[in-house]
Amino acid sequence: MGVCAAQGARPGGRAARGAARGPAAGLRGRGRGPAAARARRRLRGLPGGAGRLGRVRRAGRGAAAGGRHARRPARRGERPGGAGERPGEGRGEGPGKRRGERRGRPPVSAAVETGASLWRSREWQRLWFSQAVSVVGDYVFNTTVLLWIGTTVAAGESWAPAAVSGVLIAAAVPVLLVGPVAGVYVDRWDHRRVMMVTDLLRAAFVAVLLVIPLAGGDWPVWVQIALIYAMVALSSSASRFFNPARFSLIAQVVPAGHHTRAFGLLTATSGTAAIVGPPLAAPLLFSTGEEWALLINVASFLVSYAAIRMIRMPGTGTEGAAEGTAGGAGDGERVGEGDGEGDGAGGESAFWPEFVEGLRFFVRNRTLLVVVGTVFVYTFGVGALNVLNVFFVTDNLHTEASWLGTLNAAFGVGSILGSLLAATLARKFGETRVFALGILLTGVAVLFYSRQSALWAALAFLALASISVAVVNVVVGPLVLHATPRHLLGRVNAVLNPATYLASILSMSVTGFLASTALRDLDGTFLGVHFGRIDTVFGFSALLMAAAGLLAIRPLSRTAAGEPAAEKVAAAEGAS
């Protein structure tokens, strides 16, 4: 600029000299007053400002003198900007750290965003560790409570089985009643803080039960049972807030490309805890007393709280959410909602509109409808195994009921293996195809399992079924995250989780009723194949699962190819 102006001016004239100064005018030469000093200070304060100020001065001197500092075309392999420009100057790209960024440590999730191992993220390590400790404590606690009531509180009573069933009911009712309500508030609040508070609340609820052994059994039995029911129900209610908050936190901490891997690791951890936790409960209860089992669960919640507290949320250093680090969030996310920062200013008057907003989005989203419908049928089928497997061992496999533990161990090992394989399969074939084919293969494996009469063959087919069950359980999470904007995740989970739990309850009720009444005396042969009451129920459940998986392939393939991204759908709905 200065060179071109100087060429069009009279040599030696005032205009030529002023133009020759070019960008340096006002900052040097006659620009020595207070205004020029303020301009220089402002420029130095900008990112890369010192470098720009030096280039301005060199450009002015080079233009005036026509010498070596004049701007020239960039050589091959050199960044545009002149010979004197150092890499990173002018755009704040120099080696200096941004304010608040610690030297030697990358920003949150930077390692996993660049394609490195998921375990490079300290935030993921803390989240995984918190859940690993917590879920082991949960399994120890759940088994302890059932044994505690059945063998100590209600020992020798004819109504002891009903008292044990009451614990399961106390844990189930909040899923159906509190779950849909919790989703709205989880979407409003900060997810990390919700997890921390609910961990402390659950630790307090379990700690309250310590007063029963400390009282030495002096309280009436009905008071002890009522207190256990109340604390179990309150702890389950707190979990209705914790679980969707954890689901949303995974979307914030883990980048979209690692969602399946993250859910697979969490599922494998839960499967391992299911194998390790219950066997620990009985020795603890009968050797040291129920108070130690309760203390272990309290400690697990406190450890989980400490680990979650150390999580640095992306973008803010400690709390908040990253912009665009996870799928299902972004442009369609409203301020204050996606990160749980909404203050709920609307109070109760805003609850129903927010609840209806989530329900409307769920009903209008084809992917979510297909997923929840398929999962409902699939859960109904798997629930039959949980209820009737002990009778299958004695009636069909003709072995002692004690072998049920071996079958459960085979199922647990297969679940862990499937959880670890899920990410690889999803990366190769895609989540939608793995989900639908996984349910189809589960149905086929259960169908073959129902026709077995030898223990070793039953173990093999049950292990195969458990692998596909685990794979399906893992990919459901990424499918929901991909289809749902982040500010609606809590409300969508508030529909999905109760529906799944309702399917499980219906399965246990219906299959148990059929095996005990309508199919009780079934014992016949058709086309050379023998049918009894248990294998008939298993076979019908298997056919339901296979049909659900087969019917889900085409709709999910269509939606994966043609359905708009979650954030675009949310933005369009918000605009309307």
From TrEMBL:
The protein's name: MFS transporter
Coiled-coil residues: none
Topological relation to the membrane, as annotated: Multi-pass membrane protein
PANTHER family in UniProt: MACROLIDE-EFFLUX PROTEIN, MAJOR FACILITATOR SUPERFAMILY (MFS) PROFILE DOMAIN-CONTAINING PROTEIN
Keyword Transcription: no
Major facilitator superfamily (MFS) profile domain sequence ranges: 367-576
UniProt GO cellular component terms: plasma membrane
UniProt keyword Cell membrane, yes or no: yes
Disordered, as annotated region: 1-112, 319-345
Residue stretches spanning the membrane: 127-150, 162-185, 197-215, 221-242, 263-286, 292-308, 368-391, 403-422, 434-450, 456-481, 501-519, 531-553
Entry keyword set: Cell membrane, Membrane, Transmembrane, Transmembrane helix, Transport
Residue stretches of biased makeup (Basic and acidic residues): 86-98
Organism in which the protein naturally occurs: Streptomyces hoynatensis
Entry's Gene Ontology molecular function annotations: transmembrane transporter activity
Subcellular location: Cell membrane
Pfam (any one): MFS_1
Biased amino acid composition, Low complexity: 1-37
